[in-house]
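Sequence in, structure out. Go.
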Amino acid sequence: MTIAKELSNRAKAMLKAVAAGRGQLSGGVEPDLYVDGLPCCDQATTHALVHAGLLRARRAVGLYERTDAELTDAGRAAIA
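Output:
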């Protein structure tokens, strides 16, 4: 089974928002996703996407800071 088939519609929408340049991640081991400046309510899915290597921060930031989010190659493949 491919990663794309395992992802929920919400997870795919979150990845698409990041692909469109609308996402930011907070610093820390369990980062939070912000879309259009607003916190995404599904923290568990954000954590799963980061730990699965589909989503990452563009640069390292402190715990209470944010940076742009970006998709990895696997993340782009998952929504292709």
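Check: DSSP finds four helices and five strands in the chain. The chain has a mean pLDDT of 92.
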